Amino acid sequence: MGLSVLAGGLIGVERQWRKKLAGVRTMVLVSLGATIFVSLSSMVASDTSPTRIAAQVVSGIGFLAGGIILRDGFSVKGLNTAATLWCTAAVGTVIGAGYIQEGFFAALMIMLVNSVIRFLSQRFDQFAEGYRTESLEKNTNSFLIITGKRSSEVALRTEVINQLDRYVLSFCHFVCQDLAENRIQLQVEIEPAANADLAVKEIVTQLSKNNHVLEVFHLAEEGETW
């Protein structure tokens, strides 16, 4: 049991150093508790298998891990801590079953994942964010020109806005001009986005099928304004 306390403490030190929700004490208790449960199977005279006890530990630790996970708006916190709790329980069960070396190796691997992989994950996020920013800087505004009947102005405006919302696009200008023969022309300037070009082409396809639309086309010329 002392070895399970040591293994759980190694994992908990890294968690507490980063000021996570579960620190040294929590990891030690999880590891020790799992070891006690699995050790029970070897203490009784019946043919109870350690794997049966381990299966119950896996189920029980899910409730503890679930209490760590918090939702803050659209973000979820505590997933890594909950996963670490789950892995710590696994370390305790392995040590409790008598596999000391394997248990400590697993504890070291958990520490490695929480430190080194965390660094690589942050680097990847920085690279991805830089790539998205560079892509947006290269893109220019797109222009959508829709011609329809004056009596259908409200329906046309609504349909265009719905299509933009569908593809998560934003516009910076939305102008309506009167034309001859009771026609109007909607001119929409769409802000740059990573998927803007393909999305606008799909919007043109959808609008061309609309009965209120007489003509629709797409411009993507840099620096063009109204």
UniProtKB/TrEMBL annotation:
Is Transmembrane helix among the key words of this record?
yes
One Gene Ontology cellular component annotation held by this UniProt entry: plasma membrane
Keyword Aminoacyl-tRNA synthetase attributed: no
Give all residue intervals belonging to the MgtC/SapB/SrpB/YhiD N-terminal domain.
2-122
Question: Per its UniProt record, what InterPro entries does this chain match?
Answer: MgtC/SapB/SrpB/YhiD_fam, MgtC_SapB_SrpB_YhiD_N
- Span-the-membrane segments of this chain are 21-41, 53-70
Q: How does it sit in the membrane?
A: Multi-pass membrane protein
Q: Which UniProt keywords apply?
A: Cell membrane, Membrane, Transmembrane, Transmembrane helix
Q: Where in the cell is it found?
A: Cell membrane
Any one Pfam family match given in the protein's UniProt record, by short name: MgtC
Query: Which family, according to UniProt?
Result: Belongs to the MgtC/SapB family.
Q: What is this protein called?
A: MgtC/SapB family protein
Q: Which organism is it from?
A: Enterococcus gallinarum
The lineage, from the top, is: Bacteria, Bacillati, Bacillota, Bacilli, Lactobacillales
